[in-house]
Amino acid sequence: MTFELSDAQRDLQARARDLARSTIAPRAAETDRSESYPWANVEALTEAGFFGMTVPQTYGGQGLGFLETVLVVEEMASVCGVTGRIAVEANMGAISAIMTYGTEAQKKLAADVVLGGDKPAICITEPEAGSAASEMTTRADKRGDTYVINGMKHWITGGGVSRLHLIFARVFDEAGQEQGIGGFIAMGDETPGLIVGKREPTMGLRGIPETELILEDLEVPEAMALVPPGGFRRGFAELMNAYNSQRVGAGTVALGIAEGAYRMALDYSQEREQFGRPICEFQGLQWMLADMSIQLAAARSLIYKAAAGAGQHGDSAFPDALEAAQAKVFASEAAIKVTNEALQLFGARGYSRDFPLERMARDARMFTIGGGTAQILRTVIASRLLERKLPQTRDGHLKLAQQKTVRAAE
Ligand code: FAD
Ligand code: COA
Fold this sequence. Notes:
Elements: H1 7-24, H2 28-34, H3 39-47, H4 66-79, H5 81-89, H6 94-101, H7 104-115, E1 121-123, E2 139-143, E3 146-157, E4 164-172, E5 178-187, E6 194-199, E7 210-221, E8 225-226, H8 235-271, E9 273-274, E10 277-278, H9 283-308, H10 321-345, H11 348-351, H12 357-364, H13 374-386, H14 396-409
Parallel strand pairs: 1-4, 2-4
Antiparallel strand pairs: 2-3, 3-7, 4-5, 5-8, 6-7, 9-10
Helix pairs in contact: 1-4, 4-5, 4-8, 5-8, 6-7, 6-8, 8-9, 8-10, 8-12, 9-10, 10-12, 10-13
Residues 122, 124-125, 131-134, 236-237, 240-241, 243-244, 321, 371-372, 376, 380, 389, 393-395 line the site of coenzyme A.
């Protein structure tokens, strides 16, 4: 398999690189320091056509794929992790779930909003349902042609700045019978009952709010319920399948941040002199740089493969769960190592807030946690390799216990 980019993809990458280096990079430190959402970057990305790139042309987008998105995200993240994350959510995750599973009205709404500069929020995690996402208790009760949603989400990226929300909830019919899990589309600025709660004081990626979302009798018209092809019964699995795109996106942000840190380290090692020589002449540092480059090359291969493979696994339009998990685990762990090594190579300057390395190391630290922890993703990988539910997942222990009972009876 080769990842030769086409001329069009190279052009796109070059345009993204120019914008990232000329416009986004100079704002990155201030975005971190002020902890404010970079609306000016959103405007720049929207003008450049980097919002809603994956939206089909019939809905006003460019109909580009996840690989093209990855190329843009990587460039943005190499200078500003926050802007990389915005580019992910403006093209992957919620928007791609809606553009794939949605009704005409839902697709039109989502396309218009995103192409207009809104980064949707995907709302899955709850205080008692983090890794065990399928144990969510937020409920959507059917009342006539409306769903009434009650519950609490937290760590929602873009809480308070995103307009479009895709809220995962447990669905109940009029008789109170559980139907499964669905996604509900709600506009944050127009919908009473969607309340933004506490903002988390995060270690890194400070320019984008992570907040609680309190859902208090939030009324969503039935027409805004996102029902994947398998219905609510298969809702969780199919929504998580769409979420694989965002996992590739998260891995790409990690890769981009690491790439940016590595480039700085490579340059600095040739400028900084000690013992009468540039520090790159010391073999200890040469091997650090070599190891960084290996991590980056391997992470990039996994990410590009997962992104380019979307739509090539059965009838799914999304990256494969196994490939997405492999790519995110590797890239997120590589980013922690590479940013730390780059910081080390800068000596005291690496530790100073006057230089970008400490921000990059803080930003990179997130990606083994958000979007499925490295432990959970290893479980996803193992479960697919072994083709079975594993004991550490919700039904795994039951299935194993049942298997034992069956074996004992035999
Ligand atoms: P827990 O599930 O409580 O896990 C705690 C520890 O136990 C972890 O180390 C975990 O790996 C480990 N663990 C748990 N279960 C197992 C197991 N079976 N086997 C082995 N180890 C296990 N969520 C959203 O819905 N929308 C968002 O936009 C969003 N954005 C986020 C942005 C950031 C910056 C962060 C940090 C999180 C975000 N999240 C979001 C939430 C994120 O997806 C969760 O934090 C993540 O899924 C883990 O859940 P948890 O924090 O509750 O950890
Ligand atoms: N892609 C495709 N299908 C997926 C999937 C994914 N990423 N994750 C789960 N599924 C499917 C499973 O294959 C299963 O389908 P099946 O019924 O045909 O077997 C179904 O969804 C339920 O998954 P299962 O593993 O049985 O559920 P679980 O509750 O035991 O464990 C986790 C679920 C751990 C895999 C999942 O909840 C998870 O990924 N947690 C991390 C949460 C997260 O990433 N949050 C991000 C918020 S931004």
